[in-house]
Amino acid sequence: MNPSTMRPFPISVIAMGPDSQGDDAPEYMAMPRMETFSAPRLPDDAVPENIEAAVALLHKFLTEAEAAGFATVSQFDLINIFPAVREVINQSMGFGEVSAFTTAPEHWRVQESSFAGLWRVLEVADDGHIVVDRLETGAIPMVLTDAARRTSGRELAAPSYPEGCMNAQALVEEIRLQAAAWQPGDAAHVINLTLLPVSDADLDTLYGWLGHREVSILSRGYGNCRITSTRLQNVWWVQYFNSMDTLILNSIEVVGMPEVALAADEDFADSVERLREYLDMMAEPV
After folding, report:
1. pTM of the predicted model as reported, rounded to 2 decimal places
2. How big is the CA angle at 129 (ends 128 and 132), to the nearest 5 degrees?
């Protein structure tokens, strides 16, 4: 199959930044807009032999993934599958609560399926061609944490502190200390800026110092939560917005990946059961 014939991955981008939220609003990186939750469904024109082929492939992948266990990443390459069969798989997996993209070092597009712990992962070349297309199991695809690590530093010099700063210096030192000390397996260190006495100068200083970097994640499992990597390794912006796209909770998390973006072992176990039931339904004669 020619990868250039594949349709774009269904994550669009919403504008956020200057003039999008008022003159005094801080600037945020453009984030992926999540598709409305989509339950699995078959294409209306799917023929029985393509459905049968898709069911067989998904059963095989699911059996291998279940045997490997949730802690072991299982992958199923879709790039060379017959397009009509791939379309059945596309529709069968649906869209879940988490989507993401990276802007460097590579352009990855990630979409959780409607079965938690099962992800669609694509890499898009600079010319727009899809060069990687696969299903993957796990808490979250490693391409996201890898991109965050490769586009951030282990150390970040302290910024200057303009007039009007109240607590920026203390917050910067806390973030630097926690980032340097954090190890895989440690609990997240969360700084809830919404509950702290911070001035506009404090926030401007933190935004300018940490920046919004190359990994952007949207999770709707706990409201509309936008997560972006920063210039400092293992430090993330985690920001919650209401239905009017107004920031209602602004926090910094020191962790490998914020928990709000992760699928859990029990989610995956439930997904395996639900997907098997769905595949059995797909295999039933019409």
Report:
1. 0.84
2. 125
